[in-house]
Amino acid sequence: SQSRAMAKSLGMDAVSANAVHDLGGFDAIVNTAPSPLVLSYDGIKNDCVLLELASPPYGFDAALAREKGLDYVLASGLPGKYAPYSAAYIICECVKNIIKERENDKA
Fold first, then answer.
1. Burial (CB count within 10 angstroms: exposed 0-12, middle 13-18, buried 19+), residue 87
2. What averages of pLDDT result for each successive group of 10 residues across the chain (107 residues)?
3. Alpha helices (runs of H) in the chain, residue ranges in sequence order
4. Is residue 20 classed exposed, middle or buried when 0-12, 13-18 and 19+ CB atoms within 10 A define those classes?
5. b/e map of 52-81 (b: 16 or more CB within 10 Å)?
6. What is the pLDDT of residue 64?
7. In the β-sheet with 71-74, what is the strand arrangement from edge to edge?
8. Helix, strand, coil proportions of the chain in percent (round to 5)?
9. Residues 101 and 93: beta-carbon distance below 8 Å
């Protein structure tokens, strides 16, 4: 996807939820999907930070992550709290693109 390509261009790794299997090499894992992810948390480095940006029901299992000794940070709504105008602009552009893509699909 375009978002994954952008992440890679910024030196990050991006994987889809169904491709999450080996997360042992990451210093931080950021979730943006408001849907539970099936993770065992085994093999994730002890100093890895799990950053939850999604809305409820969230993606990470906070209790299991903490049980495994991982640093779990709940930061849902972060873009809107710290950069509301930029976040609103990006969401607006995204919605317009989705509408345009759907119109093109109908044509």
1. middle
2. 74 69 80 83 88 91 93 88 86 84 83
3. 2-9, 62-67, 78-82, 84-106
4. middle
5. bbbeeebbbbeeebeebebebeeebeebee
6. 93
7. 28-31, 49-52, 71-74
8. 40, 10, 45
9. no
